[in-house]
Every structure is written in C-alpha cells, then in structure tokens.
C-alpha cells in the first residue's frame, strides 16, 4: 500500500497563465480538506532552490480566483535543468517534508517534475500555459483567457484597419506553438494566419493575395502572425512597398498573458487542482492531469512529454477556406 502523504507543496513555473490562482486555490483547499499540510513554493523551481517556502491556509487563497497572474509568482530556472540542480531541489523538498508536489506549468515545467519524481518526490503536473501545446490534454489553463484577450484587441485593430483600408499584421504570442494564432485567425476572420509549425511562407504569394483581395473590394487585410514567425515590423515595410497598401504592425505581447481568467479557465483549473491532490493521496506520481473527450484524466509524464502536439488539420483547412 502507498505511504500516506501528510505534506504537499505547490508551485507555478514557466510563463504565468490566467487561472493559475484558481488552480492553487483548489490544490490548497482540497488538500486542507483532506487534513494535509500545504507548502507554497514561490517563484517556481527558482524559489525552491532558494527555499522560498511558506505555509498556505484556506484564507491565504481567499479572493484570488478572479485574479490574473500567479500569487506564488513564477520563474524560468536554469539551475533546474542541471542534474545537480535537480538533486538540490529534491533535497530541499525532503528538508521541508514535502512528500508530494503539484507543479502548475507547461511542458518545460513537467520535464522538471519528471526529474523530481525520479528522485523520489511524488509529483503531479497541472497544464497551465496559454500555448495549449501539451498533447495529452485538449485543454490547458490560461488558453481561453489569452485567446479572448487577443481576439478583443484584434477586433479593435480591425476597426481602424478597415477605416483606413490598410493591411494590418498582428503578432500574437507563441514561440513554438501556433494555437493562439490559429484560434485568433478563425475568431477574428483573418485573411492570413502565419504559424511557427509551418515556418516556410512565401511572402510573394501573400503579396499576390493582398493585391487580389484589394481588387475584389476588400477593405482591409488582417494577417495574424505568431511570435515564432515574427519579423512583423519588417514584414509590414516589405508588404507596403510591394503592394502600395498602407501596412501597420501591432505586436500584442505580454498583455495576452494577463487579466482576470474566464469562467472556463477558473472552472477547469479548480477541477484539475482538486484532481491533482486526489492523485497524490492515491499514492500516484509522475502524472499529468488532462482533459480529453469530456473527461478529466491523468497521464504518465514520460508519455506526455513524448507526444508531439500537431495543429488540427481540419481547423487549418477551415481557416483557409473562410479567408476568401
Ligand atoms: N528538461 C528539463 N529538465 C528539468 N527542468 C526543466 C527542463 N525544461 C524546463 N525545466 C524547468 O521548467 C521551467 C519552465 O519551463 P519553460 O520555460 O519551458 O516553460 P513551460 O513550463 O513550458 O511554460 P510556458 O511554455 O507556458 O512558458 C524552466 O525554467 C526550468 O526550470
Ligand atoms: O515571457 P517570456 O519569458 O518572454 O516568454 C514568452 C513565451 O511564453 C509564452 O507566452 C508561454 O508562456 C509563449 O507563448 C511565449 O513565446
Ligand atoms: Mg512550454
């Protein structure tokens, strides 16, 4: 029988994502409800290395469900990528009696959790990233808020773009993942979507399509460009020069990661947080919580990290068909 866990830790790691606070709140309150002690680790693995560890009570997470960012703060920690760093992190967990650890973050954060699991700390990952780039789950906390934030901003760019009959390039986040760009492309009715997964665009073809569209009477041309493709400012100059159509670039940047989480992010985060604690109480380790086919599931971290998330072909096809 698995040893009964008495103390758990929780941290947020990698880029922050709206809804992380709802997940922390759920982890804390579910664990306290089961009679566990909860340690909050500040600033992700960096804070763990520096022993920034505090006790969390039910009141410490009051009034947080509606707040963006993460009350525990987050970091990208180079030391955690080294074997010595991982051993130090596991030793600190043991020093503070942390027998189970909930890691809220993206794929990189799960790689860190996997290393800690191999060193004897029971770990469970909760997918918290605006990138939606984790294959074992259809949903990652923060995506819904980020896509709605970007969509609203792009609607505003569209108003001015149409008024001036301009071409607008709007750069959205996603260094390696194009989900945010693809969803904005469909939700905002963009003429063009540039994705990091298909990084071989023929700019002369785009220019040809802009000219054809203008001749067909379209009043604007919206290009959603993912951060991983980038170069939006120079692209705008090249397009303006080649088409004679005034072109402006807008880089939305980190505003996409902030803001109050949507209902969807709050609810998924609350359920995933509770499930993570239940898994730890069942003695499970090296698992990631996910959502697939209408159910909350858990998947082995090794398996989760080996899966490659591809963009859905059908969605790509529809986005292209609707851009006429
Ligand atoms: N291979 C690895 N081994 C150990 N730790 C890792 C590894 N990869 C990443 N990490 C740790 O996880 C942290 C977060 O990873 P990363 O910066 O890739 O963000 P993420 O969790 O994928 O989130 P997002 O992509 O949404 O910003 C890293 O700073 C590092 O501390
Ligand atoms: O905030 P940073 O460290 O510049 O990271 C930016 C990256 O983080 C993400 O926002 C995911 O958290 C990516 O979409 C983006 O490429
Ligand atoms: Mg990532």
Automatic annotation (TrEMBL):
Q: According to its UniProt record, in which pathway does this protein act? A: Carbohydrate degradation; glycolysis; D-glyceraldehyde 3-phosphate and glycerone phosphate from D-glucose: step 3/4
Q: Which residues bind ATP?
A: 15, 76-77, 106-109
Cofactors (names): Mg(2+)
Q: Where does substrate bind?
A: 129-131, 166, 173-175, 227, 248, 254-257
Keywords per UniProt: Allosteric enzyme, ATP-binding, Cytoplasm, Glycolysis, Kinase, Magnesium, Metal-binding, Nucleotide-binding, Transferase
Q: Which residues form the active site?
A: 131 (proton acceptor)
User: Which InterPro entries does this UniProt record tie to the protein?
Assistant: ATP_PFK, ATP_PFK_prok-type, PFKA_ATP_prok, Phosphofructokinase_CS, Phosphofructokinase_dom, PKF_sf
Instruction: Give the highest taxon in the source lineage.
Output: Bacteria
Q: Which GO terms describe its cellular component?
A: 6-phosphofructokinase complex
Domain annotation Phosphofructokinase: ranges: 8-280
Q: Tell me the GO BP annotations in alphabetical order.
A: canonical glycolysis; fructose 1,6-bisphosphate metabolic process; fructose 6-phosphate metabolic process
Give the enzyme's EC designation. Answer: 2.7.1.11
Subunit and interaction comment? Homotetramer.
Q: What is this protein's function per UniProt? A: Catalyzes the phosphorylation of D-fructose 6-phosphate to fructose 1,6-bisphosphate by ATP, the first committing step of glycolysis.
Q: Specify the protein name.
A: ATP-dependent 6-phosphofructokinase
Q: Please give the organism.
A: Faecalimonas umbilicata
């Amino acid at each position: 029988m698995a040893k009964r866990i008495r103390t758990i830790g929780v941290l947020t790691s990698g880029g922050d994502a709206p809804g992380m606070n709802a997940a922390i709140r759920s982890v804390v309150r579910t664990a306290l409800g089961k009679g566990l002690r909860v340690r909050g680790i500040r600033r992700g693995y960096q804070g763990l290395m520096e022993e920034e560890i505090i006790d969390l009570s039910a009141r410490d997470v009051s009034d947080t469900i509606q707040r963006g960012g993460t009350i525990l703060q987050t970091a990208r920690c180079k030391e955690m990528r080294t074997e010595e760093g991982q051993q130090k992190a596991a030793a600190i967990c043991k020093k503070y009696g942390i027998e189970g650890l909930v890691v809220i973050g993206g794929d990189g954060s799960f790689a860190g959790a996997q290393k800690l699991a191999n060193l004897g700390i029971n770990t469970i990952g909760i997918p918290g990233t605006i990138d939606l780039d984790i294959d074992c789950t259809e949903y990652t906390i923060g995506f819904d808020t980020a896509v709605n934030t970007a969509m609203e901003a792009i609607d505003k760019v569209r108003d001015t773009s149409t008024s001036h009959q301009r071409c607008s390039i709007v750069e959205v986040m996603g260094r390696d993942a194009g989900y945010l760009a693809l969803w904005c492309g469909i939700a905002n009715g963009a003429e063009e979507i540039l994705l990091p997964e298909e990084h071989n665009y023929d700019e002369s073809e785009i220019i040809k399509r802009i000219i054809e569209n203008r001749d067909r009477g379209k009043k604007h041309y919206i290009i959603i460009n993912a951060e991983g493709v980038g170069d939006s400012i120079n692209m705008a100059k090249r397009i303006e020069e080649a088409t004679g159509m005034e072109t402006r670039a807008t880089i939305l940047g980190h505003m996409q990661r902030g803001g109050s989480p949507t209902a969807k992010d709050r609810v998924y985060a609350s359920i995933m947080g509770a499930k993570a604690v239940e898994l730890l109480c069942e003695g499970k380790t090296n698992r990631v919580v996910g959502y697939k086919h209408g159910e909350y599931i858990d998947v082995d971290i090794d398996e989760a990290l080996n899966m490659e998330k591809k963009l859905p072909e059908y969605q790509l096809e529809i986005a292209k068909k609707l851009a006429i």
